[in-house]
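Continuing the series of single-chain predictions for the mutant panel. This is the parent chain; the variants come on the following pages.
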Amino acid sequence: MWMRSLYASLPTTGTFVLFGNIHDLHPVVIGDDCRPDTTINSIWEVLKRCGFDGVVVFDPLNGFRVAKTRESLAPDVVLGGLSSRIGGELMETLSLDGRGRAEAQCGQRGVSPFAGLSALAEAVARGASPSLALVVDYTSQMRDGSSAEDEALLQAMLASVEISNCHALYNGAPIRFGHEGFPGMLRHPVFWLVDAVDDLPSWMTNGDGVRQIPIAKPDIDLRLRMAALLLQGHVEGDDIPAVARRFADATEGFSMRGMYESVQLALRMRSVAQDIEDAVRTYRQGLSENPWQSTRLREQLIDGREILERRVLGQSAAVDKVLDILKRSALGLTTAHKKNPSS
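Parent structure:
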C-alpha cells in the first residue's frame, strides 16, 4: 500500500514523510520475481518505474552516498554533477563516513552531523537531469525535544518545505522533469524516514506539497505472501502452502524482517517445515525449548482422559476435544499455542 501511495503521489509531492515500520523488509516485484528488500531499495524500484535516474541517501552517521542509479548512469557521474552544484569542499564534508564525522566533531566542537544537507537537498531538486531523489534517514534519533534544534538540520527541513512549496522553478531552475507516463509532472522529492510523524515539526509535515505515508507492519495476507517467498528453496514445493500458512499464523505482529530472521533460525534446526513454529518462538521470546515438547507433558497425555474425567463430569465430548487440542499441540500440528506456549 505505501509503495502504491508513493507512486500515485510523485507528480504532486515535493516532500514525503514515511513513518512507522521504516526499516523493515518489503516484497518487491522485479520482472517475474518477488524478493524481500529494504525500504530505500523499495523506494528506488518505484522511482525507477517513473523514469528517475537515481536516488541518493543521507544519514547523520554515514553521511552522503549514491544508493542506486540506472545501469546507464555511473554513480561517479551523479557525484560529479552534485559536486559542481554544491562545491567540492562541501561535498567532501557530506561524504564523510562515521569515523570521518567523529574526527571532524572532535577537531571542531559544534560541527553538526547535518552540515551541508540543505545544500544537498537544493542541488537534488534543481535541474531536469539527472532526475534524482534524496532520502534522509535516522532523523528521529537526533531530535529528542530536550535540546535546542540543530541549526543545520533546521535549515535542511526549511529547504525541504521550500522545495515542496515551489510550483515549477526553484532558484531559477526547473524542479520538474518529463516522463512518458507523467509528462512534465514529476518532482525531485525529498524523503524523510522517521519513526513517527511527530519526530518532525508540524510545520514541515503538512501542506499541499507534503505527503505523509505510513508503513505498517504486514497483515496476515502480506505475511502469507512473504512466508511463501521466504520458504522457497528450504521447503519442498508441494509443502510450501501449508507451511506458509502455519508460518504466517505464528508470526502475528511480526515485521517482515522478523520473519526473515525466523527462517534463518529454522535453518539451524532439523527441518524448516517441522521447526518453523519453534524458530518463531525463539525469535519472539528468546526460548529454545518448547514446553509442549516436554517428556512430562507427553507422559501426562497418556493418562489424559482419566485425569480430565476425574475433574470434568459428564462432558465426554469436551474431554475428547481438549485432548485432541493438547495432543496436536504436543505434536506440533497446530499453532493454537503460538502466543503463549507456557499457558
